[in-house]
Design goal:
Length: 351
Amino acid sequence: MIDLPPLARFGELLATGLRDVTSDPAALESTGFWAVTADFEGRLVCARFDDVREAPVPAPRPGAWHGPAPADWTSSLDHAAYTEGVRRIRAHIATGEVYQANLCRVLSAPVDAGADVDALTALLARGNPAPYAGTVRLPGHGVEIATASPELFLRRRGTLVESGPIKGTGRTEADLLEKDHTENVMIVDLVRNDLGRVCAPGTVTVPDLCVVEKHPGLVHLVSLVRGELREGAGWPELLDATFPPGSVTGAPKSSALRIIADLETAPRGPYCGGIGWVDADRGTGQLAVGIRTFWIDRTDAAAVLRFGTGAGITWGSDPEGEWRETELKASRLLAVASEGHSQGCAGQADA
């Protein structure tokens, strides 16, 4: 375990002075400021910090981050396995088992045992700024995450809750297809249903549908779903109703999760989970979907940097096109994590 103090950083908000850690979501209804991480597989870590202040992300320090060489990245699904997975999902769609499913792969590369995700966050802030960027560093609890997420999972202000699903990705707006719009509307309907399980009847609305957002190196279609929590509902009920995020699972969610478990060969971990903060004293909070996210896995002898990338598969999906989408989403961020070296291919080998 590296000797670095626990901290959490969300935009220009810095939390230090770790007080306690729990896996109980009911703690988010108590007091204090909490950093929250939820793995796709369901592991929840809530860390309460005593000192929360505004602090801009520092400029990268020379030598603070030693990333892997571009050629060191391997993929849990290689090109052949990924494109075959797309074909198998289309076969499930043809039989009516699912309408859409997200197929993801996890990229891995060895890093120095002293690697610090907060130093990587400084590089990401310069090379790939994102609206929900952050760090959660809890070495004693197996959590070391640097995210450049562009996607809102849950925002809460009192009883008002919002979710901002992303579906549809291209290099430019001209690359967005009818399939992308169809997929976005499909997932919006799923998110409406999820929020409807925990919101008061008649309060769930869609203020924005299929809005084009520009991000470094690509564009997304983004929607916004809003509702009012029913009486007595809080974070435990909200997370239970909506997790894992609909945009990174599929529709129907239960069927998509079964297919994902069958096709993917590595756990997603923080990727496609939830990462963010809750201010229990003020009744506010904001969790991002854990995409464009790096994390470090450690053993006694080694440290491995991981990064997930994926695409939503529908009947209109082209296997090669979906593989290219996973490459597009990964290429810029892997280049940043690899200390700016020229990025070739995002992991052609099967890890």
